[in-house]
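Sat 14:20. Reprocessing the chain from the morning session after the first attempt stalled halfway. Input below, unchanged.
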Amino acid sequence: MKHDHDLARRPIHICQSPACGCGLTRRDFLRISALGAASIAAPLLSAGDALAQSASNDQPVKIGYLPITDAAPLLVAHARKLFEAEGLRTEKPRLFRSWAQVIEAFVAGQVNVIHLLSPATLWVRYGTRFPAKVVAWNHVNGSALTVAPGINSVSELGGKTVAVPFWYSIHNVILQQLLQANGLVPVNRNRDGIKPNEVNLVVMPPAEMVSALAGKSIAGFIVAEPFNAAAETAGVGKVLRLSGDVWKNHACCVTFLAERDIAERPEWAQRVTNAIVKAQLWTRGNQLDAAKLLSSADDNRYTPHSPQVLAKVLAATDTASYEASGAVRNKIWQQRRIDFQPYPFPSYTEELVRALQKTRLEGDNTFLQKLDPRFAARDLVDDRFVKKAIASVGGPQAFGLPADLLRKEVLAA
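Finished this time. Tokens:
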């Protein structure tokens, strides 16, 4: 059976109107596409210049991130100087407001270590044809469907608008699974034309979601923490379902490196991964300290969130209330609201491709329909570095992982 694995360039949806909600404007699309093409040509222009490439092995770590808990391993590694402990130089991490901005900066080479939505890595590698790979997961779970206080069930979202952070996000995938399980149809159209059995999906930067919910321009949102906790704390929203209760220990954001850096600077890539793995291990055992470190109360001011809001996520103790409300239905899974483990399970990537192939996505997604899940699990992910890093901190058991690093995906919408 022949599969379309040549990364051939294909057209992607170009937003013609600010009201489209696609998350990518025409300017974003043209910039990312042009930069992607240049990135492919660049290695050809420098072929044979081995000395210059060797010298660039000392490049600094330039982190790009959104102010969400998904970025915790990168920011903790920076704050605790774990990159420096690996012999690396670092620059101050750059905060971005939207995923489109993070992707553009990464493709342009302005940043070289980013956390990115796991489905978005498929779009970047196979949709825009930019050569980059997942080297580790950043965390598991850590997201939720949050709704207006008066909404008590998924079925009550019919005829309403819900925000997602990006079309290619695990949030969009899980939301649509929940909607379909409740007889609702996801759409993306003018709000006046929404039918009672439809839910209108719009893309919105995470930082704007809480205020949009408070202003009643949306009925809910599904996004990474701590914006769900922020809505709860402010009294403008409530968690209807934790994402990890729908897809057990799912990945959300992953660490993404350019393939050129991996190929030409493998020792640099290993050291970056070592620092991120050590940061995750520290965060698991120091949740309250991590909440303060990531908060606006810390000197680094990595995020605008308070220690209290971040602690509600990182050191969650209110599991009983979520079980009572139905936000958690699979108590037997015994999961944390957010947890940290770096190994990128192939079974997840395979199931993710299959799920995306059945998910409504704006724009041309023909690259997805021809993508073989098992091929993607091997081609998108390079787990050489993370396996060594995990072994150096005590092995899989240090993160509560199976010794054979294998698992089966469990979903229950």
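The chain has two domains: 18-44+52-140+254-399, 143-245.
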